[in-house]
C-alpha cells in the first residue's frame, strides 16, 4: 500500500473510532461537565492531573478553562497539577507527585480530573486516593475499561472510558473528550 493510501486509511480508522465512541462517551461526559459546573458555581475548583503523555491533556484542559474554549467568558478555576515536581521525584516518591499537591490545594467540593491512557498510572491513582481523603469528587478519563482508577471510584464519581484499538486513538479520543468537557461546561454556564 502506498504511503498516501496508508495515511488515508488511518484517518478513516480514527473517524470510525470517534463514531464508535459517541454513544459510550456522551452520557459520562455530560455528567462530568455537570459535576464540574456544580463545583465551580459553589466557588470550587477543578484540579487536573495526568502522568506521562496524559500530563499534556491535563495542562490543556486547565488552560482552556482558565482562559477560554470557544466563547469569551471569565476564567474558571482550574489547576493542572505539576507533573514535574522534581523535589518529590528526586526523593524517589513519584507516587506522591500529585497526591501531595491535592493535599495542599484541594478542598471539599472541588473536583479532580484524573487522566490516564491505561487507567493504571501510579501517581494518578495516588492522586485519586488523596482526592477521596479530602472529599473531592473525581472524574476519571482513561483508556480501555478504566483500569485501577475506575475500580477505585466512589458511586458519586464519574468514569469516562475510551475504548480504542491503539494508544494513538486513545489519545485522540481523550483530546475529543477534553474538548467536549470544555464545550459542555461553557454550554451549561453560557447557554447555547
Structure description:
- The protein is of the alpha/beta class and 192 residues long.
- The protein has a single domain (3-190), classed as Glucose-6-phosphate isomerase like protein, domain 1 (Rossmann fold), CATH 3.40.50.
- It is built from 7 helices and 5 strands, in the order αβαβααβαβαβα.
- The protein has helices spanning 3-41, 54-66, 86-90, 99-105, 122-133, 147-151, 167-190; strands at 46-50, 78-80, 111-116, 137-143, 158-162.
- Strands 2-1-3-4-5 form a 5-stranded parallel β-sheet, with helices on both faces.
- α2 links the parallel β1 (46-50) and β2 (78-80).
- The longest helix is centred in the N-terminal third of the chain and has 39 residues, at 3-41.
- The chain is globular and about 55 Å long.
- It starts with a helix and ends with a helix.
- Mean pLDDT is 91; it is low at 86-92.
Spell out the blueprint of helices and strands.
Elements: H1 3-41, E1 46-50, H2 54-66, E2 78-80, H3 86-90, H4 99-105, E3 111-116, H5 122-133, E4 137-143, H6 147-151, E5 158-162, H7 167-190
Parallel strand pairs: 1-2, 1-3, 3-4, 4-5
Task: Provide a compact summary of the structure.
The chain has 192 residues and is an alpha/beta fold.
Amino acid at each position: 500500500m502506498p504511503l498516501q493510501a496508508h495515511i488515508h486509511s488511518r484517518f478513516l480508522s480514527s473517524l470510525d473510532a470517534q463514531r464508535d465512541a459517541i454513544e459510550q462517551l456522551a452520557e459520562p461526559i455530560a455528567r462530568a461537565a455537570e459535576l464540574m459546573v456544580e463545583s465551580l458555581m459553589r466557588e470550587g475548583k477543578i484540579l487536573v492531573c495526568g502522568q506521562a503523555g496524559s500530563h499534556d491533556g491535563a495542562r490543556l484542559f486547565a488552560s482552556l478553562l482558565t482562559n477560554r474554549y470557544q466563547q469569551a467568558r471569565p476564567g474558571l478555576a482550574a489547576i493542572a497539577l505539576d507533573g514535574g515536581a522534581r523535589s518529590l521525584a528526586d526523593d524517589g516518591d513519584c507516587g506522591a507527585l500529585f497526591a501531595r499537591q491535592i493535599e495542599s490545594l484541594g478542598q471539599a467540593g472541588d473536583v479532580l480530573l484524573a487522566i490516564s491512557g491505561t487507567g493504571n498510572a501510579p501517581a494518578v491513582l495516588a492522586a485519586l486516593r488523596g482526592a477521596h481523603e479530602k472529599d473531592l469528587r473525581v472524574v476519571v478519563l482513561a483508556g480501555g475499561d478504566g483500569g485501577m482508577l475506575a475500580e477505585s471510584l466512589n458511586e458519586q464519581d464519574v468514569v469516562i472510558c475510551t475504548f480504542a484499538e491503539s494508544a494513538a486513538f486513545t489519545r485522540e479520543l481523550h483530546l475529543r473528550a477534553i474538548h467536549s468537557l470544555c464545550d459542555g461546561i461553557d454550554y451549561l454556564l453560557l447557554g447555547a
